[in-house]
Specification:
The chain has 336 residues and is of the alpha/beta class. It folds into two domains: 177 residues, Rossmann fold (3-Layer(aba) Sandwich), CATH 3.40.50; 143 residues, N-(1-d-carboxylethyl)-l-norvaline Dehydrogenase, domain 2, CATH 1.10.1040.10. Helices cover 51% and strands 11% of the residues. It is built from 15 helices and eight strands. An eight-stranded mixed beta sheet has the order 3-2-1-4-5-6-7-8, sandwiched between helices. β5, α5 and β6 form a beta-alpha-beta unit. α8 crosses α13 and α14 runs antiparallel to α15. The N and C termini lie far apart (41 Å).
């Protein structure tokens, strides 16, 4: 079986390593020509996964059409804001094979999730073989073979099971789901809450504050999800609570790291200039605030993150804005 992985960042490289470890031939599209040569000669991606020796079954290239030709399954691991620009030029040549998107985010310019972006690019026929993967999964730990569990969602149950079988290993467990929008939103929205969790840690606000933030963050994630057609129960699973807890507490989280540095007094624009890897929560915060306003959904934590990132609001003032809101019931629902 030949598998094409589009996106040579940390996550795409880790998934390529996982699949090559199962004996599949993996063609990996990498944007940077120097990384292509490095992976070929040194079997390492020093920019995104330094110190991980990569399988000889990974064949890197920076020619995207080479990855599409002769493949039996495709994996999209391009950051959400770049999916359209990477794929639109080759969209007519994308084969009708299972296409698994592992991107987490919402396109700022259109407020669309990856499924909707690929619908624009490939049409309904192309989406007939589409699935998404999400869950608590740091790329480095997956590449190291540490135990991980994720969810694959598709509107076609048999396709979800087929994809799960391709990825499943004794150290990488894959569950299936049919709530595509819920799984996609869980993976996107948790990044915004993770920035807030990092701010809390940077400001040394304590464990109580972080626990409250994660819990209330999950509540607002679920509210927006239900308003967009997802099921609230999905947000209690791996792609919701699981990924949220990991990203808000794990030191490998890029989004939490951004928040931590903000909490220590650094300016968001200075942090982003010095990062080689994408922190998806930064653009997603802008998309989330727009979606919440459009749908009339209250998302106070995400709104304060947006104000810190884009309006220069002081984190201490943002904390006051959250803590001093008028009392209200803990549970109130958007109708499913």
């Amino acid at each position: 079986m030949v598998i094409g992985v589009v996106g040579g960042g940390s996550w795409g490289t880790a998934l390529a390593q996982l699949l090559a470890g199962k004996g599949y031939r993996v063609k990996l599209w990498v944007l940077e020509p120097r990384l292509v040569e490095e992976i070929k000669t040194l079997r390492e991606n020093s920019l995104y996964l330094p110190g991980i020796r990569l399988s000889p079954g990974i064949e890197p290239t920076n020619v995207l059409r080479e990855v599409l030709e002769g493949t039996h399954l495709l994996v999209n691991a391009v950051p959400t804001q770049y999916i359209r620009s990477v794929w639109e030029g080759v969209a007519p040549g994308v084969p009708l094979v299972p296409l698994v998107s592992a991107s987490k985010g919402i396109e700022v310019s259109t407020l669309k999730t990856p499924e909707a972006i690929f619908r624009d690019l490939l049409g309904e026929k192309g989406l007939s073989t589409w699935a998404c993967m999400s869950g608590p999964s740091f790329a480095r730990e997956v590449a190291q073979g540490l135990p991980t569990a994720v969810t694959v969602a598709s509107r076609d149950g048999s396709l979800a099971r087929e994809v799960a079988g391709v990825f499943m290993t004794p150290r990488f467990r894959v569950y299936t789901h049919d709530d595509v929008i819920g799984v996609e939103l869980g993976g996107a929205l948790k990044n915004v809450i993770a920035i807030a969790a990092g701010v809390c840690e940077g400001m040394e606000l304590g464990h109580n504050a972080r626990a409250a933030l994660i819990t209330r963050g999950l509540a607002e994630m679920s509210r927006l999800g239900v308003a967009m057609g997802a099921r609230s129960l999905t947000f209690l699973g791996l792609s919701g609570m699981g990924d949220l807890v990991l990203t808000c507490t794990g030191d490998l989280s890029r989004n939490k790291t951004v928040g931590f540095r903000i909490g220590k007094g650094e300016k968001p624009q200075d942090i982003m200039k010095g990062m080689s890897m994408v922190a998806e929560g930064v653009p997603t915060a802008a998309a989330v605030v727009s979606l919440a306003a459009k749908l009339g959904v209250e998302m106070p934590i995400s709104t304060e993150v947006y104000r810190i990132l884009y309006e220069g609001k002081d984190p201490g003032e943002a904390l006051g804005g959250l803590m001093e809101r008028a009392p209200r019931p803990e549970f109130y629902w958007v109708q499913e």
